[in-house]
Design goal:
The complex is a heterodimer of chains A (about 170) and B (about 400).
Chain A lengths: L2 H22 L3 H21 L3 H26 L8 H27 L16 H11 L1 H22 L5
Chain B lengths: L7 H36 L15 H11 L10 H19 L9 E3 L2 E3 L11 H22 L3 H32 L4 H8 L16 H14 L11 H4 L9 H26 L17 H18 L4 H23 L1 H30 L5 H33 L3
Antiparallel strand pairs in B: 1-2
Helix pairs in contact in B: 1-2, 1-9, 1-12, 2-9, 3-4, 3-9, 4-5, 5-6, 5-7, 5-13, 7-9, 7-13, 9-12, 10-11, 11-12
Classes of the chains: A mainly alpha (about 170), B mainly alpha (about 400).
Chain lengths: ~170, ~400
C-alpha cells in the first residue's frame, strides 16, 4: 500500500464515520459537527488529488459559511434532542435498505467500468485556479450565469418572505 | 509521515520550525498582554503592571502560572464533549493560521540547505485562501463554546459572534480581491513581491495607495473578525458578563485568550502582507544606508535600557535591565559588523516592525474607542463595508482592464 493511498483511506474513513455519526447523533448540534468533519475530510481528499483551490473553497464555503449558518440556526432556535416517533422509527429500516441499494449500485458501476479507478494527482491545468476560472467563465459561462441567477432569485424570495407585512 | 516531505531531513526541519514558531508566538502572545496593559494604562494616565519584575515584565509569567494552578471546574449541565472541544478548536485553528505567514524573503542557508522563514512551503499557491479557510473554521470555537456552556449569557455571546463573523467575513474576503487582482496570485510571497515591482518607489509601490478602500474595509472587518474593541460584542462585559467564555476558567479560558491574541497577530501579519508591502523596505532600494536602521534603533534603545536599569528601584531590576540592554546593544553592533546577518535581517525587520505597528493600533483602538451597539454593528457590516469592498473590486478590475487595453506595453 502506497503512502498517499494510506492517507486516502484515513480521510475516507473519517468522512464515512462523520456521515454515519451525522445520522446516529440525537442532538442537532452534534449532527452539524459531524457534517463539518465530513466536509473537512472531503477537502483533505481534494488536497490529496492536487486540487488545492477546490479544497480551500470547500472549507471556506461548506465548512465555514454554510455550516456556520446551520449551527447558528440550531443555536438560535435552541433545538433540543431529536424525538423518536413511531414514524421516524419506521423510516430507519427503509433508509437502510435504500442506502444499501445505492451502495450496491455505485459498487456495480465501478466494477462494470472495467478500467481501474485511479486516485492519481490531477496537477494539470484543470485543477489550478486559472484552469477552473477559464472553465467557469469561458467554456461554461452560460450555465454558470444561469446558476447565479437562480441563486439571486432564491435570495430575493427569501428577502420577500422575511419582510414583515406593512399594516 | 515523512512521505509528505521530499526528504526525511525536511520533516525534521519542519518539526523544528513548528517548535520554534510555537515558542515565539506564545511568548509574543504573553508579552502582548503586557504591552496592551501598559499602553492602555498610559492612555488612561495609569502606570499599568509594574510590581512583578522590572517594569512589570514578569507579569505575563505570573499570569501564566495563575492559569495553570487555578481550579478548573466543569459546570453542571454542559455538553461535555463540545465544552472541551471548543477551546481546543479555537486555539488549534488560531495557531495553524500562523504557519502560512512568510516572515522574510531570503531562505536561511544552513549546511547547504535553504530554510524558508515560513512553515508552509514558499510556493503554496493557495496561501491566502488557506488562511481564509482556517479563519472560516475559527468561528466554531466561539459559537460552540457559547452553546455548550448551557447558560444564557454565553449562548447570547456565541450567537452574536457567529452572526458577526458570518457578516464580516464577506467584507473581509471581498476587500482582498483587489489586491489579488493586482498581484494575479493567491501566493503570499507573490503578493509581496508584486508590491516591489518598482524597487525605486519604496513605500509608494505598496498596495496601500491604490487599494486604500480595500485596506480600510479589510482592517475594519479583520478587527470585527477577531472580536476586538470596538467590535467585541460577543464578550461585552457590561451586557453579557464575559460573553462566550463566561463558564470557562483556568487553562480553558487561557486557550481562548491565547487564540484571540494569536488571531490578532495573524491579522496584523495579513495587513502587512496585503497592503503594507510585507518585508519590503519603505525606502527606495538604492538607499543602502537604510540597512543600518535596525542598528540605529537597537543601539540607542539598548543604551537607554542600561541607563534606566542603573536607576531602577529594585536590586533585581538593577541587574536584569542592564544585562538585557547590553544584549540589545551587542545585537545592534553585530548587525553593523556582520554585513551578511544585516542583509538577512532586513526583510524580517521591516515585517516585524509593521506587524508591531498594527498590534499597537489594535491596542490603541481598545484604549480609545467605545463599543458599537449590536444593530449598528450589523448595519455597518452589511450596508457600508460590503458595498464599499464590492465597489473596490469593480474599480480595480476596470483599472486593470483599461491598463491591459490601452496601457503601456
Amino acid at each position: 500500500m502506497t503512502e498517499p493511498l494510506l492517507v486516502f483511506f484515513i480521510l475516507a474513513a473519517l468522512a464515512v464515520v462523520g456521515a454515519v455519526s451525522l445520522i446516529l447523533q440525537r442532538h442537532p448540534i452534534h449532527s452539524a459537527l459531524s457534517l463539518i468533519v465530513v466536509m473537512v475530510a472531503l477537502a483533505g481528499l481534494y488536497l490529496l488529488m492536487g486540487a488545492e483551490f477546490v479544497a480551500a473553497v470547500q472549507i471556506i464555503v461548506y465548512g465555514g459559511a454554510i455550516m456556520v449558518l446551520f449551527v447558528f440556526v440550531i443555536m438560535l432556535l435552541n433545538a433540543g434532542v431529536e424525538e423518536r416517533t413511531s414514524l421516524s422509527k419506521m423510516a430507519g429500516p427503509a433508509g437502510l435498505l435504500l442506502a444499501m441499494a445505492l451502495a450496491a449500485f455505485v459498487a456495480a458501476t465501478i466494477a462494470k467500468s472495467g478500467a481501474s479507478v485511479q486516485a492519481a494527482a490531477q496537477t494539470g491545468a484543470l485543477s489550478s485556479t486559472k484552469g477552473i476560472s477559464e472553465m467557469v467563465f469561458k467554456d461554461f459561462v452560460y450555465p454558470f450565469e444561469l446558476t447565479s441567477f437562480l441563486i439571486l432569485v432564491a435570495i430575493l424570495g427569501a428577502t420577500v418572505l422575511a419582510q414583515r407585512e406593512k399594516s | 509521515m515523512h512521505f509528505l516531505f521530499a526528504t526525511r531531513e525536511d520533516l525534521y526541519i519542519t518539526l523544528a520550525k513548528i517548535g520554534i514558531l510555537l515558542f515565539i508566538v506564545l511568548t509574543v502572545n504573553a508579552y502582548l498582554t503586557w504591552f496592551e496593559r501598559k499602553v492602555v494604562a498610559h492612555i488612561q494616565s495609569r502606570w499599568g503592571p509594574h510590581r512583578v519584575g522590572p517594569h512589570g515584565l514578569l507579569q505575563p509569567l505570573a499570569d501564566g502560572m495563575k492559569f495553570f494552578f487555578k481550579e478548573d471546574p466543569t459546570p453542571a449541565g454542559v455538553d461535555k464533549f463540545v465544552y472541551y472541544l471548543a477551546p481546543l478548536l479555537a486555539l488549534a485553528l488560531a495557531l495553524t493560521s500562523i504557519a502560512i505567514i512568510p516572515f522574510g524573503p531570503q531562505p536561511l542557508h544552513l549546511h547547504g540547505r535553504d530554510i524558508y522563514l515560513s512553515i508552509a512551503p514558499p510556493n503554496l499557491n493557495i496561501g491566502i485562501l488557506a488562511l481564509f479557510a482556517i479563519t472560516a473554521l475559527g468561528v466554531y470555537g466561539v459559537a460552540l463554546a457559547g452553546w455548550a456552556s448551557n447558560s444564557k449569557y454565553p449562548l447570547l455571546g456565541g450567537l452574536r459572534s457567529s452572526a458577526q463573523m458570518v457578516s464580516y467575513e464577506l467584507a473581509l474576503t471581498m476587500s482582498v480581491v483587489g489586491v489579488l487582482l493586482m498581484a494575479g496570485s493567491f501566493n503570499l510571497s507573490d503578493i509581496i513581491n508584486a508590491q516591489g515591482r518598482h524597487p525605486q518607489w519604496g513605500i509608494f509601490g505598496w498596495n496601500l495607495w491604490p487599494q486604500i478602500l480595500g485596506f480600510l474595509c479589510f482592517f475594519t472587518a479583520a478587527v470585527a473578525e477577531t472580536n476586538r474593541v470596538p467590535f467585541d460584542l460577543p464578550e461585552a462585559e457590561s451586557e453579557l458578563v464575559a460573553g462566550f467564555h463566561t463558564e470557562y476558567a483556568s487553562f480553558k479560558f487561557a486557550m481562548f485568550f491565547i487564540a484571540e491574541y494569536t488571531s490578532m497577530i495573524t491579522v496584523s501579519c495579513l495587513c502587512t502582507i496585503m497592503f503594507f508591502g510585507g518585508w519590503l523596505s519603505p525606502f527606495p532600494a538604492s538607499w543602502t544606508f537604510t540597512h543600518y536602521l535596525p542598528s540605529v534603533f537597537l543601539i540607542p534603545f539598548g543604551l537607554w535600557v542600561i541607563m534606566d536599569g542603573f536607576r531602577y528601584e529594585t536590586i533585581f531590576g538593577r541587574v536584569v535591565l542592564p544585562a538585557a540592554g547590553t544584549g540589545i546593544t551587542a545585537l545592534g553592533l553585530a548587525l553593523i559588523v556582520f554585513p551578511h546577518i544585516n542583509e538577512f535581517i532586513q526583510g524580517p525587520f521591516w515585517f516585524l516592525s509593521k506587524v508591531l505597528l498594527f498590534l499597537f493600533i489594535y491596542v490603541w483602538m481598545r484604549g480609545t474607542l467605545p463599543r458599537f451597539r449590536y444593530d449598528q454593528l450589523m448595519a455597518f457590516g452589511w450596508k457600508l463595508l460590503l458595498p464599499v469592498s464590492i465597489l473596490n473590486v469593480i474599480l480595480t478590475s476596470f483599472v486593470i482592464l483599461a491598463r491591459m487595453q490601452w496601457g503601456a506595453k
